[in-house]
Write a sequence for this structure.
């Protein structure tokens, strides 16, 4: 195989070995001229290429694909001195989109005048996405702790607060809506509460942001006030922890207990007298034979206001 290629090469170069040095010079000049002629024809044709430029905006950088069309000579010179790849733009704060027709003049300045510029993509640079309209439901909550602090001393909430409606429907730009809380505690405006409570709020008081619509227009909160009552009961004094209990007595055997509570709870004391008890403990006995009376009840929401007398005398057997 090697011998075959050597024979082929010898056959190919045989004509040239017969040429004189003068002939070889003429042949080299002809080949050079032919190459120059071929390059001049080729570079005079029109070609296209593409570049990626970066458009710098305040706080943003966007890539832009640019197509450049021109003669081979112009593109050759451009390849030797490429354009600046980052262009800085200034836009007003209200602009949301930078269109192609505003980009093109600035981009053309980065290229020589012998080439044509065409933006391939994007058609427009979006500076800020247009805000979408969104809706949200916000739940309204009664300020129970604040209400308790504002009730008069003898008042209590006889009914739980009712809120109508219990939700507000808000509508506006999504970037504003998402900043709103999911719940709102209704204000009471630091008023002293001693009568049935009924207040109407304007929805715009509860959500006062611009550009947000609120439905319905008003909200109502209501609850009824009850008043604590007091009652005085005669309670027998029991003996606790006494040895041979039947031999010991106290004087007086009954004490008056003043209690405070809701009317329905006080009525239970009368129907179930065992739900309130008074007692003295032998462990509290002292040389003075005076024992403090303890009072307790199994009912909730009953307050022991006063025990009279607070001490009873221990009578020895």
């Amino acid at each position: 195989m090697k011998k075959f290629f050597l024979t082929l090469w010898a056959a190919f170069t045989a004509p040239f070995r017969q040429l004189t040095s003068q002939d070889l010079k003429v042949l080299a000049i002809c080949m050079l001229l032919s190459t120059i002629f071929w390059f001049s024809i080729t570079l005079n044709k029109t070609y296209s290429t593409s570049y990626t430029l970066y458009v710098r905006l305040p706080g943003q950088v966007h890539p832009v694909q640019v197509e450049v069309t021109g003669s081979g000579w112009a593109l050759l010179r451009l390849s030797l001195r490429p354009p600046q790849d980052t262009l800085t733009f200034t836009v007003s704060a209200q602009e949301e989109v930078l269109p192609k027709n505003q980009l093109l003049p600035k981009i053309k300045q980065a290229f020589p005048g012998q080439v044509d510029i065409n933006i391939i993509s994007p058609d427009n640079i979006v500076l800020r996405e247009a805000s979408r309209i969104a809706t949200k439901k916000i739940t309204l909550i009664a300020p129970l702790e604040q209400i308790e602090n504002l009730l008069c001393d003898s008042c209590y909430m006889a009914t739980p607060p009712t809120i109508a409606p219990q939700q507000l429907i808000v509508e506006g730009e999504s970037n504003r809506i998402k900043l709103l809380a999911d719940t709102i505690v209704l204000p009471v405006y630091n008023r002293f509460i001693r009568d049935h409570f009924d207040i109407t709020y304007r929805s715009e008081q509860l959500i006062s942001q611009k550009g947000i619509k609120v439905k319905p227009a008003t909200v109502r909160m209501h609850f009824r006030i009850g008043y604590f009552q007091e009652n005085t009961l005669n309670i027998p004094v029991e003996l606790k922890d006494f040895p041979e209990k039947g031999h010991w007595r106290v004087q007086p055997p009954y004490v008056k207990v003043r209690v405070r509570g809701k009317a329905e709870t006080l009525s239970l004391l009368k129907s179930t007298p065992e739900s309130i008890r008074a007692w003295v403990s032998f462990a509290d006995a002292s040389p003075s034979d005076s024992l403090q009376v303890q009072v307790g009840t199994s009912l909730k929401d009953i307050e022991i206001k006063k025990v009279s007398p607070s001490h009873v005398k221990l009578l020895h057997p």
The mean pLDDT is 80. The CA atoms of residues 287 and 314 lie 10 Å apart. Residues 46-126 form one domain.
